[in-house]
Amino acid sequence: MSDAEESDTAEEPAEDTAVEHAVVLDHLPYGRPDDDRPQHQKPEIAYAVGEEQFDLFELTLVDGADMSIGDRIVVAPDADRDLVDRYREIDHSDLSRGAEQELEYVIEEIVDRHPQRFLDYFNDAQPLTLRLHQLNVLPGIGDKLRDDVLESRKRQGPFESFEDLEERISGLHNAKGVVVERIIEELTEDVKYRAFVGDE
Description:
By secondary structure, the protein is of the alpha+beta class. It has helices at about 95-115, 115-125, 145-155, 160-170, 175-190, and strands at about 5, 20-30, 45-50, 55-60, 70-75, 85-90. The radius of gyration is 19 Å and the shape is elongated.
């Protein structure tokens, strides 16, 4: 994402436009430290991660925005935003140190808030190629665990919760942690197959 996408327009959203939420990773009320402008010209900013596609954002905030780390805010459509003046997508390397430290915890909260979305990955995963299955891109899931998941899915139906998944698959002890670890990998590394980050 070398050319950062920026949005500051206030166009009317279509009626079926979905609201995009993000969770705040860091709040810099005095602007970026590397901004050489005088203090009164530096905009208040925050870093956030999108809930749906895990896009990373730098947010320029409206004056006097009341915001804290972990807050869930509206990023799009523009007409629904009240704390964000404009935003741009950024790479992981553009995050502040504070945002980097909060990223794993915030992703865990997102997975906890939307567990079915991530259980569906285990319930619906299919082969990617003749030699690679979608389950194999998850950390720690080799051929044996993959086969156990597929067999259990076939015999007993879909997994109802992370606890159900862990009870039915004896070698899988922290399914939610596996998902979080994969999301972090996709945000920080150049991976060939993406399971959760970006357009699916």
